[in-house]
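Exercise 7. Predict the joint structure of the components listed below.
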Amino acid sequence: MKNSLIISLCAVVFGLLAGAVLMLATGHNAVTGYSYLFQGGLKNPERIGNTFATASPLIFSGLAVAFAFRTGLFNIGVAGQLLVGGFCASVVGLNLDLPKVVLLPIMLIAGALGGALWSVIPGLLKARFNVHEVVSSIMMNWVGFWTVYYGVQSYIKNPSSETESKQLPEAATLKAHWMTDLFHGSYINLGLLVAVVVVIVVAFIINKTTFGYELKAVGHNRDASEYAGIAVNRSIVFSMAISGAIAGLGGVALYAGNASNIQIGILPSQGFDGIAVSLLGANNPLGVLLSAIFFGLLYSGRGFMNAMTDIPPEIADSIIAIIIYFSATSIMIERLIRWLIRRRANAKLNASQDGKVKSSHVEHD
Amino acid sequence: MRKSAVLLAILTLVFSVLAACGKSNNNSSVSSPTASSPAATQSASPAASSPAATQSASPAASANTNFQVGMVTDSGTIDDKSFNQGTWEGLQKATQDLGLKDKYLKPAGTTEADYLQEMGNLYDAGYKFIVTPGFKFETAIYAAQDKYTDAKFVLIDGSPHKANDTTAVVKPNTVSIFFAEHESGFVAGLATALQLKEGEVGFIGGMEIPPVQKYNWGFQQGLKYANDNLGTKVTIKKENVIYQGTFSDVAAGQQIAAQMYDRGVKVIFAAAGGVGVGAIKEAKTRGESGKDVWIVGVDVDQYADGMKKDGKSIILTSAMKKIDQAAYDMVKLETEGKFPGGQTLMFDSKNDGVGLPKDNPNLSPETISKVDEVFKKLQSGEIKVAAEQGNLIK
Amino acid sequence: MEYVVEMLNIRKEFTGIVANDDITLRLKRGEIHALLGENGAGKSTLMSILFGMYQADRGTIKVGGKEVRISNPNVANQLGIGMVHQHFKLVENFTVTENIVLGSEPRKWGIVLDVKQAGKKIEELSKRYGLNVDPYAKIEEISVGMQQRVEILKMLYRKAEVLILDEPTGVLTPQEIQELGKIMKNLIAEGKSIILITHKLKEIKEFADRCTVIRRGKTIGTVDVAPTSETAMAEMMVGRQVSFKVQKTESDPGKVVLKVDSLTVRSGRKSLALSNFSLEVRAGEIVGIAGVEGNGQSDLVEAVTGLRKVESGKIYLYGEEITGIPVRDRIESGIGHIPEDRQRRGLVLDYSLGENMVLEVYHKEPFSRRGILQKQAIRKYADHIIESFDVRSGGSAASTVRSLSGGNQQKAIIGREIERNPVLLVAVQPTRGLDVGSIEYIHKRLIEHRDKGNAVLLVSLELDEIMNVSDRIAVVSNGELVGVVRAADTNANEIGLMMAGVRREAGA
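Solution:
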């Protein structure tokens, strides 16, 4: 736990350093670049709010990937689950005329169910027929993409735009006046609070419950879990379903929080960013929360850096990509750290040895 | 198990980045904008308010040469051979000619919030002349024109409006620009029919949205005009008019084009972004092996994209809308203090805002001269092209 | 006397643990030198230092009388030191030759791989040392014993003078062990020197010239093997007197606990792994299953414990049928299982020792309440097992199982299973890879468990173990029961014949 925190921090530092090299190599001042990058995400309450808002869907998608990962599953279908979850919530939000306090929970449930439906299919295929979940969940991304495409156009199309769903009414969005005001007009919304709650719940499930114990056991060693009488296939299905439900909630945060409608023809990039968030967060719920906020900061500060300097957006994208690579290759960083520690320990030992050898000579004399 | 999953994760990331790189390595340039006379734009359609009254920020009619031009890109990359690229090239030319600073930003996503965030970034950095290409910016501009009243906005291919409400609200600091895609499609259809004389043609669209639909309808009317008046026998069948549904699925474009060619289609009009790129790819492959197949390009002159190894292109011609010129004009007008704020402008045949490329190596001189002839009738209003489906296919 | 390798006063410390403390080992040219020690005594660490995988904190290494610094395995190779690891490092779908040349491929014209020439050379080497390896066979097609020879050939191909063999007999059949002995003799006859890492005294006695014994990271001494008895070496290794004979009283069988009735099980390849197999195990007795590996033992075990579907036949526990019920229900009804492969089946290596100790009972009180794990109760339970089964871990219940030595992992599993006090304990190879001290201890616990009135089904490939521990012995061959004999009235010869499928003439 502590170890992985150090590794993740190193990944971030190395990533930023590599980004600095890239900026210098392309003839830009790295210090100004980074100062604008962080200013862009933190300069004033509105920008801070936007950073959190950008992070919210990433918390969900990162958590979804991390949760599946703990059970040894690679849920690469988070994008589709976000989309379907968001769609289900939107359908509910557009069709039920209820007060906000009642409607929002129903939408969240609808979103979670939609996401779970989309992930449980790869889960079942894996459990029953040993179909690799990477293949089936990628396919489900496209099934979701076109299902939502059709669904939006047929049932909740925006009268003023061919490619969007109807705007959600005020009662059906996660936007809250007090939050918007608190952050001076930012588009921050209740999605962030839901995300934090889900992080806590997931951390509790993984670390404290027998259910989490089973899931992790299956993730670490399927044969031993089978030996111990754990229903391995059931764990796989549950794990995928929960992972998808988390992603579905992320869809609500994305489409009914940050945005207030669904655009068709777009697979949300947050789904794939979730993999990076999860890797950088070492598949740990709290780690995911922090790494999502970090990514949120990069994404929301990037534009300001571009605007204030001559660094083109592509370089900013590359810097983010580099950080992702460093976090993805945390094993490499782990080795590097071990090597450094060992080298220093050896040096110390040699030094003390030399000292002893000298003193023993004195004794002999 | 865990290790392999990490490996897979890395691979996925690598591929996603590679894919992004692959998308952005076409660098051939778009034909340079025809020198435009600012006056031409004045033939534009109904103006909501008089231009003079709209100069709220800068003193009216006085030259304003001290501003910075910003652009926010749509979902694609800056070199998308379409909207983003066209707009950016127009802006770059304008800022070079006029000695201004320019900058484009690429939003993280495609939601209104993403767009607004980048506009805010541009605004905060002093880029107060902001150009946005594409209908996706409609609601974002609607919000931005009120939020940043001392900035100017140009919305290409859309008009600002509230969500769930089609009523356009063009504030005095905003210009909304449309193109007569149906007229552009019409001349392309005309040229196709004249060059092909007889045979099957097809249409591949991206998403089924008005600009793409108008290309399609105009194209069919152009074919019909040639068949009725100029003695050609070119047909288009129902199964050969397809909207793929995205602007990005290259593989699908290639597949659809292959099916059409297999069904005996000679020329495909591809108004479909990345899907069109796939269609061009398929045509090139067939062209290399000596097959007689063609593509009609869209938005910009795509001649160079269809270049085969022998130096000839499979792009018959392109149905252009001169986005670059529109972008150029708006900047120019602003420097002259004539920013048409509050107006909705229409770029059509009358102001040379749409049409075929200047050079058409694949069209015969007879075709070109006939097309020019008809184009003049279009400009004079003698021929009218409908922007509605009527009894046309899809 | 000429020493090829000398390791003098080697010390190696890992955070908190001294793995090697002032160890000295001298290898003469042309000898087989055994390195004997319990699991976790520091044998592997010492050899890893010689092979360049670790650096010693202190001490010197001399090769051919000259002091050297072995910073990595490549340096070791250049110095003529080669190592055959316990787990082979071969590419399954490559040929023998391809595997051997991997990393030092002979080239023709600079780029083309010259397999032919390499193949010839390997054939020569193989003949010279009597290895009898086909250079063009694929690894996946040859036996484990052959694969080991490929590893040896790899060393010879790289002109190794000193060969380190790490537990080479663990994976071999008795015949293969004899052949390996011959090969080692050939090697030393050609002037090579061998370090044989093992804890099997019988093999040391049979093959080695000298033996260095280490215990808890310290050298105990180096002895000439010929005049030293097995008992003496065992005492050096363990540090106390060891008895090889298992002390036990006559069994007093009670009710039938496990009844297997005409069981037929298919293996993965659709062939019958077990056919029409019937067996009874009573309370208060240990029934051993003897047989050459792969004759249906694992299939029987998996069928009884619920990990494998049965084709036909029935299994009863105390008269109740359990044939089709899930694993967890079998655990609940009183089956304990010490699995054959402890790392694959028995443990979640990345879980802590504590978490592993409740692998089958975590869902029950007091280890969890209403679905919430009770860490304190788990810890207490684990500490109890750790203490009563002498599981030595770096820290405590909190250390990950991965960091434990193989012997301690096994003790942990056995402790876990016996602590649950199952009415039927299925123990598969419970002492595989363990040292004399641990074996003695585990045998004692198995007999204790029997004496409490429980049934024990013992599966082992070590005939000695079966003969010493079991009350009755069931011999399997080719998935069929050859016969059941009383351990007291049989001998190794008879069992050996039965293992080969020869049925007993007269009834027991």
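Discussion. Residues 355-365 of chain A have pLDDT under 50 and may be disordered.
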